[in-house]
Each structure stands twice: as structure tokens, then as C-alpha cells.
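Fold it.
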Amino acid sequence: RVDKSNWLGGYGYGDFFEITVGDCPAEPEPEPAAPAPVECSGRKVTAKRMDPGGLDGHGWGMNLEFMCGDSKVSIGSSRGSQSASAVVNTPMFEGDCAPRVDKSNWLGGYGYGDFFEITVGDCPAEPEPEPAAPAPVECSGRKVTAKRMDPGGLDGHGWGMNLEFMCGDSKVSIGSSRGSQSASAVVNTPMFEGDCAPRVDKSNW
């Protein structure tokens, strides 16, 4: 409350006032920071001939080369086109190239009146990472199949011996197979898919 007891100026009126105070004003939003320059290899640099002699689109004959920072850009000649590009496989920033290239800054000492507008492409996209191989799974109950592959078994008559072999720590008992080139057994002990050798013969049965 403000009245004659605490206002300034010494007035003796009987007025009095209820005083309210608003909140602090909002802070202004900061300007967004400019993105940091990015250096990368693989940028595409394009030269477009802009002098009157090149505006008809017939291109140019000289071997156009110039520097973008520490990177040498070799565009070469361009027969029949006003523009040509090259990929620069050394690290460079987008702003490393002069926006205009002419006899004052190209390489080779040519004295022609041509001049070129230079544009620089973005960094190439990162390659997609290879998907991770699935983790090996150990389980019981895998079905293991043996197929006789030697010339004597290719006619499909099978085999007579009691075929047994190890897959890791698991013993696989296929047995004999009369009249079929293949036979299977279910292994009721824990094993991984890669525990079995891909070939079984007298060296490992």
C-alpha cells in the first residue's frame, strides 16, 4: 500500500494505492550457434564455366586444376558441358575452395579469360555398419544329420556301421542307415551349431 505516509512529494491527500509487481521479463532466446565446420574426405567439387565464352555450354579444353586449402582439385577438361565435377579424397572443409577460379588462382599458368563458379558438396554419408553376427546359441535337442558323400554311398544304399562322432562335448549316435544316403539323431545334451565338424570320416568318427 502506498499513501501519503510513504509516497514521494509530500502531498497530504487521503488517496491510497494497492501495489502489485509483475514477474521478471523472460530472458531473450540466445542466437543458435553456427554449426562447427566439418572436415572430411570425399567431397564433390563442381566447376561451372561462367564467362561469356562458356555460357553457350560448350565447355572448355584446358586441364582445370586448383587448390582448395591443402587439397588439389583436378577437374580436367569438359567437352560439351558447362560444368564438371571431381571427388576430392583428401580431408577438406566446405569453405576451403575459392568461390571463383580463374587465371589468378588456377594451376598450370594458363592465360585464358575463362572463369568458373565453384561449389562444394557435403561430406559423404557414413556407411551403414555391418550388422553384428548373432551370438552363438547353446541348447539341447538339436537334430544332427549325416549324409554319406563318398562315391560308394552316392547310390543311396546307406551304410552298415554304427556311425558315432563327437560334436564338442556331445556324443552323436547316428547308427547305421540301410537304404538311405542320410540319417539323423537328436542330441539331448547342450551344444552349439558349430560344434560339429562339417565332415566326418575315419579320422574323427
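The two ends are 104 Å apart (CA to CA).
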